């Protein structure tokens, strides 16, 4: 089954976008809770998204949760 909606979480973990408003931890958790209640079970995050991976750890144990993340290799020197 392919999910129709994936919630991007960059704005939950850092200033981002046109509004550039920093959300509190409680606001971010409320958004994640409402998303889950609305059957959104797939979340996009990254190590570069500030606190978003840590916030997602609060819901990662819920049923059917899928977390897509990216790894930052910018500090790795390839030889």
What does this structure look like?
The chain is of the alpha/beta class. 28% of the residues lie in helices and 11% in strands. It is built from three helices and three strands. The protein has helices spanning 10-13, 25-37, 52-56, and strands at 6-8, 42-44, 66-68. A three-stranded parallel beta sheet has the order 1-2-3, with no helix packed on it. Strand 2, helix 3 and strand 3 form a beta-alpha-beta unit. The chain is globular and about 45 Å long. The N and C termini lie far apart (40 Å).
List the helices and strands and how they pair.
Blueprint: E1 6-8, H1 10-13, H2 25-37, E2 42-44, H3 52-56, E3 66-68
Parallel strand pairs: 1-2, 2-3
In short:
This protein is α/β, with parallel strands linked by helices. The protein is built from three helices and three strands; from the N terminus they run E-H-H-E-H-E. Strand 2 (42-44), helix 3 and strand 3 form a beta-alpha-beta unit.
Number of DSSP-assigned strands:
3
> What oligomeric arrangement do these chains adopt?
single chain
Q: Mean of the pLDDT scores?
A: 87
Which sheet architecture does the biggest sheet show? 3 strands, parallel
Q: Give the helix tally.
A: 3
- Derived structural class: alpha/beta
Distance between the termini: 40 Å
